[in-house]
Specification:
seven-stranded mixed β-sheet, homodimer, nine-stranded mixed β-sheet, alpha/beta
């Protein structure tokens, strides 16, 4: 590991506020809880934690910035939650809710009403796939896009830090503009990604929320003391003109959001625009998108530009009201082509929504002349990342390469292999050797455009520690890793990222933790495919699955085995031995179950394996790590009595003692073959 | 009245089928009932009658084309109805439902599922405003447009005949394409408009519905005999590619719909296209829209072209899947500008949905070259008719005139006066003297473009009888008029149209019946503003409201008065006397309440007034009319006993006897002033 860089240190210089390692659900809920009075909740994956946080905080007496504890109410469904918000707002209270997917659909009738009545609120959404041919709990923009006609403003956060920042900005802007907001971020990829971020303080919130607007909201409350007609039934004589009467509010909204962003930038140093361009002034090819994918594109264009390309991206932040003029001014003069990416698919449409909005902006620019181009850029559309489908730097490169084509593919997909209607772009994933969804020999794939750089380098981030941890569902691996991120986040100057894949479809219900640490902001919104460290918390995984597939050369491998230093090697399958030798992997072992049992921990190996990780990786000095783990144990189990604390402390000490390194032989000796991961008979499709 | 024209007779020559006078709800329900097995209903205005018809028909044992009576089930909400349809479809049954507005929103989660699983069904929608700043029971496309991302196909009917025809086509096309359909028509304006139409026969239905597709649907049923996995939960590994796997079905759908339309045309002679162009080959200015407004535009461009203009319209029928290529080929070569009209408003959007789709089609045409233009037409957008706001020929003319401007107004509104954000087009409504929503002196208004024709002529249809009937809510006026349309429809060769305005916002709860009869198809999807005949069924209306405002010169006025031939004139307000003299109106009176009472009808005046209408208008020979009314009475009251029949028959005969004409004096003599229609004190806004 490199030491923290100069650049990194300067990054943190202005940060006077607490640094916390949390996910986007907690970040958004943190703001929402502090600037509301009535919080109506109903659980739905992946938004449930926002409601759970608020509920827990309210129970603990956590007050909002005005000194009252928000009332948190769980309703019978999201329809009831939205109705409660609507009612609370009409009574002059500040109110919010959290939801996703079908939950958001159930809120829709109320959202039309809340927006129609120009009532300030923010609904925070962990954007999730709407169930169609299949249900999916994972993330894309199909739910929020289905709300784009309700009159709600829509503001998108691309990362955990942004989820806190733009939650703040949306709550401030809704009060000033009277347009209610949907503030959203990608389900799981952002909602459940742990990042070390700077926390907005209560004083910041007080600086951002203008009490005059709160008082104005209260003064619009329906009360017998201030009688007013609202929510009537209207006939053809007046409905249309009444509806048009809201135009001025929508026209003013983007300006208010930008001003709010500017005030926020003064306060925190983090500057946002309605549309944020990132890239050089002379970029020719531009990607336009919103959500976590924008972070991956950001990272990728930086690398491609460093390698001599001229590429950029536009991050769409305020999607509704859509400010065509602001968008047009965001495009650099040098742009000759744009690829607009939608993380949703609307079957039968002329095009996905963001694409159509941007075409409209170009069309109206031709007439209105918001800005001039020497030659108007071409615009093509693509779909990516449906239901949390991976979206990686090689895919970004494929998109940017496609823009070099004389006639680029329009309405492409990327990340899958559509071998029926042939919409997919070919992409080159060096490590995984996957192209266009099919396995092919690495390096033998025709990639359109220039290919001087080895595309596999795109997923390497110098100076970033990348660790993969394979555990069994409920064996404590994920909790231990979340804990490890917090320890690293709080005890070092590193940026930290943790993402946890709960894979319910393979044998053994495996969980995979993806941990990154490094000196610079981590924008890799995709799974790790080149790991510095791999931990396998269950020996049987190594017998059935290709655990070392993503190990980089010289990586470290830690395995929980029923063996000692002398017999571990022999008990590894031959294929694994070969990988260890070929990739020059350092091999560490521990009999985690034995250590746990002997420490009085039963079969709970999580603390043991966590200690081993810190002992090997040396991200922290060993003593500091041990101390930090013990502190964490005190926090977690302190109330459960001395005996439990004692066992955990013993496990920590015993783990350090029993961890061993195996001197790796130079030849494969094992006769053990890999076992079939599928138990029983299964069709070919399943076996593959 | 002119006699039926040659043209008219030729229109009917090929019509071998029964002619029925019904509204679009009945027309759509008639098809739906005959080609389904499970009909799940929940009432919502203006779609409720569809469910009521099916329920009544099922109770009466009316069978579908396969000889079984559909099971009609009323659920607890539209969410339950959609769930029932979804479940029935999965069991292999043919299933349908009817809804509108918030009801459709509640169906949304199931629509995503039904479409995602490629399950054939049709949801018939009487399109209605979604409640926002206010609730409205009236019509626009905000509800169906909110479904455009669900994957449902969307087919729009513009008239009652089309509601029957396209209901048929959608049921046939869904079975072949496996894409479920939303078949919609304008709430109230079409759903509740009575028209004389040709009825599809059961043999037609059998010819249109291919049993092979029904069998294929049944074979996809979920049953233990044929186990199959569907409706699973999918993870990021496979969801995206599975979703793209439906592309071929969506790509094929427009072709299937067109073929289905072609088969329908062979059968019935009524030909439809995905996009129907109407106008001359050399039209320069084109309106694009869907729904009842297209009928008004159709009528208006015919008149404008007859007066030397070069204008046309494109009727959008299949809105989803949106066939860009088919649309581009529909535009005449001569077109230099298009105005795309949306009957919805999506606040904060870059543009309304149809507009954005058409911009997308133009953009992709530039790249794909579906077709070439010497000069690509300009495209502007407008909103009209929200919540059943009137959309009239003068507004159509204003839109077409705007297209002559060097820089036409984009995102305009028409039909209101937006004096805040100034989006409205100025239009000239000669009769009403209303421009841009404000009262102004007729003829003194600057109308853009050529103005040689008196625009007031646009709402005149030569040879068409236009009658206005003012009644009191529940006094039987509307029922009598619906009955009159049926009598005229069934006893003459006239086309007939009836539209009924239930005005709940003015004193006395007035109902206004708008009846048109004539030799040609009636496309006037707007209220009558030049009446040949006006009936006032309540004397107090004439004292309070400007009942004769819409009387044309030489019109006939029938009033139910407590006066006789000698004292009626004196009891009319001076203003009304002046109108009668100035407009050369023939004046008829009857003491309807007296005649009704003496005939044993209590205070039910509907039969009396209906007889007077037939006696004066002579649409039918008086004897034939009397006979038809008596037949209708037998049908309606036959089961209620001899006494009721006798009273009604007496009322018919007495009405003819007591009807009198007043010889209109040449001078105003009455001192009576108009009374204030507002009872009690009210603000200026209400009084106006």
């Amino acid at each position: 590991m490199d030491a923290p860089s100069e650049h990194y240190e300067s990054n943190y210089k202005h940060m006077k506020r607490p640094l916390v390692t949390i996910d986007a659900n907690e970040a958004a809920a943190y703001i929402a809880h502090h600037v509301n009075e009535v919080i109506a909740i109903y659980p739905i994956t992946p938004a449930s934690p926002m409601g759970e946080w608020s509920d827990a905080w309210a129970m603990a007496g956590k007050k909002n910035i005005w000194g009252t504890v928000p009332e948190v109410i769980e309703l019978q469904s999201e329809a009831g939650a939205a109705g409660t918000v609507h009612g609370a707002l009409q009574s002059g209270a500040l109110s919010t809710s959290f939801t996703a997917s079908q939950g958001l659909l159930l809120m829709m009738p109320n959202l039309y009403k809340i927006a129609g009545e120009l009532t300030p609120t923010v609904i925070h959404v962990s954007a999730r796939t709407v169930a169609g041919h299949a249900l999916s709990i994972f993330g894309d923009h199909s739910d929020v896009m289905a709300m784009r006609m309700t009159g709600m403003a829509m503001l998108c956060s691309n990362s955990v830090q942004e989820a806190m920042d733009l939650a703040m900005i949306s709550h401030a802007a809704t009060l000033e503009s009277r347009i209610p907001f949907i503030h959203f971020f990608d389900g799981f990829r952002t909602s459940h990604e742990e990042q070390k971020i700077e926390q907005i303080t209560l004083d910041d919130m007080r600086a951002m929320i203008d009490d005059d607007h709160v008082i104005a909201h209260r003064s619009r409350a329906m009360t017998p003391d201030n009688p007013f007609i609202r929510g009537t039934a209207q006939n053809p004589d007046v409905f249309f003109q009444s509806k048009e009467a809201s135009n001025e509010f929508y026209n003013a909204c983007p300006g208010i959001v930008q001003q709010t962003m500017d005030r926020f930038a003064e306060l925190t140093g983090r500057a946002y625009k309605l549309f944020d361009y990132h890239g050089p002034d002379d970029a020719e090819r531009i990607v336009v998108l919103m959500g976590s994918g924008a972070e991956t594109v950001h990272e990728t264009v930086d690398k491609l530009n460093a390698a001599g390309e001229k590429v950029g991206l536009i991050k769409v932040r305020l999607y509704r009201p859509f400010d065509m003029k602001a968008f047009m001014h965001t495009i650099p003069d040098s742009a000759h082509s744009l690829s607009v990416l939608d993380r949703t698919k609307e079957p039968g449409s002329a095009g996905e929504p963001l694409y159509q909005d941007i075409l409209t902006a170009f069309q109206e620019n031709r007439v209105e002349g918001f800005r001039k181009f020497d030659a108007e850029p071409r615009v093509i559309a693509g779909r990516y990342g449906l239901s949390s489908k991976e979206f990686t730097p090689p895919m970004v490169k494929a998109i940017l390469d496609e823009l070099k084509e004389i006639k680029p593919k329009n309405h492409f997909t990327v990340g899958i292999n559509d071998d029926v209607t042939h919409t997919s772009l070919v992409y080159f994933d060096g490590t995984r050797s996957i192209t266009n969804g099919n396995e092919k020999p690495a390096g033998k794939v025709a990639v359109s455009g220039s290919d001087k750089e080895n595309p596999s380098n795109l997923t390497r981030n110098e100076g970033v520690f990348q660790g993969l941890f394979y555990g069994l569902g409920a064996d404590g691996t994920v909790s231990a890793n979340k804990n490890s991120i917090k320890i690293i986040g709080e005890n070092t100057d590193f940026y930290a990222q943790g993402y946890f894949v709960y894979d319910s479809k393979k044998s053994g219900s495996m969980t995979t933790s993806h941990l990154r640490f490094g000196p610079d902001q981590i924008r890799s919104a995709y799974l790790i495919d080149e790991a510095d460290f791999i931990a396998c918390h269950q020996f049987r995984f190594v017998e059935r699955m290709d655990i070392l597939r993503y190990a980089r050369e010289g990586a470290t491998f830690l395995i929980n085995a029923f063996y000692g230093a002398d017999d571990l090697w022999e008990n590894l399958p031959g294929k694994v031995q070969k990988q260890i030798i070929d990739k020059k992997i350092r091999l560490f072992g521990i009999d985690g179950y034995k250590v746990a049992k002997e420490s009085g921990m039963g079969n709970r190996i999580n603390t043991v394996m966590q200690v081993c990780f810190f002992a090997i990786s040396e991200i922290l000095p060993k003593e500091k790590a041990v101390e930090a783990i013990k502190d964490a144990i005190k926090k977690t189990y302190g109330q459960k009595g001395e005996a439990i604390l004692k066992s955990n402390f013993a496990a920590v000490d015993n783990a350090v003692e029993h961890l061993y390194e195996v001197k790796v032989p130079t030849e494969v000796t094992s006769k053990k073959a890999m076992l079939n991961p599928i138990i029983g008979e299964a069709p070919e499709f399943v076996n593959d």
